[in-house]
TrEMBL record:
The lineage of its organism: Bacteria, Bacillati, Bacillota, Clostridia, Eubacteriales. It holds the Pfam family Flavodoxin_2. Its cofactor is FMN. It catalyses: 2 a quinone + NADH + H(+) = 2 a 1,4-benzosemiquinone + NAD(+); N,N-dimethyl-1,4-phenylenediamine + anthranilate + 2 NAD(+) = 2-(4-dimethylaminophenyl)diazenylbenzoate + 2 NADH + 2 H(+). Its EC number is 1.6.5.-, 1.7.1.17. Binds 1 FMN per subunit. This is FMN dependent NADH:quinone oxidoreductase.
Length: 201
């Protein structure tokens, strides 16, 4: 049995997010195919994740001996480490990820929990796991001339690799804000891709 951590990052009201229409479809299909797996949903806005507290950076990134899973911030790093699979769902905002998702990444990227330093540099401690990123984007960012502008999925893929997770797949719905595009058709195509990817996740 696998433990799946479903990380949601969108400020829109329930039912309004095109990203979540796709990611929720993925989760529903995954549940159908893997009924015994545990799925933990972490909605960052509902959770109220904020920026790292001022003056506590060293305390959080070099956890004191005995610092447990009940710590208000480190609990996220422990939760992340314990998962086997990750589903991240977020829109592309201003060419990157929502700030709340970056704050969450700061919470989980903790020396001694999700990565460590060695004589040859940093080593991720989350190896043998897999992730899928599901994102909705207003423009066309999966091909040039704007692919090089995209720093959301690229950042997530890079930081997950830093933590040891290199099995990383992306589903993107592009062109959702381009005038004249069939938005429903783009979302439905992404939903079909999501359900297909759920078969092998």
């Amino acid at each position: 049995m696998s433990k799946v951590l479903y990380i949601k990052a969108n400020a829109k009201e329930e039912g309004e997010s095109r990203t979540f229409k796709i990611s929720d479809s993925f989760i529903e299909e995954y549940k159908r195919l893997n009924p015994d797996d545990e799925i933990i949903t972490l909605d960052l806005y509902k959770e109220g994740v904020a920026a790292l507290p001022f003056g506590q950076l060293n305390e959080l990134h070099v956890p004191a001996p005995g610092t447990g899973k009940d710590h208000p911030i480190l609990k996220y790093a422990y939760q992340f480490l314990e998962a086997d699979k990750y589903v991240i769902a977020e829109p592309l905002w201003n060419l990157g990820i929502p700030a709340i998702l970056k704050a969450y990444i700061d919470y989980i990227t903790v020396t001694g929990i999700t990565f460590k330093y060695t004589a040859t540099g940093a080593v991720g401690l989350c190896t043998g796991k897999k992730a899928i990123n599901i994102t909705a984007r207003g423009g066309i960012y999966n091909t040039e001339p704007f692919a090089s502008f995209e720093m959301g999925d690229r950042y997530l893929r890079t930081i997950f690799a830093f933590l040891g997770i290199t099995d990383f797949t992306t589903i993107s719905a592009d062109g959702l804000d381009i005038i004249g595009n069939d938005i429903n058709a783009i979302v439905e195509k992404a939903i079909m891709e999501a359900k297909e990817k759920a078969n092998s996740f």
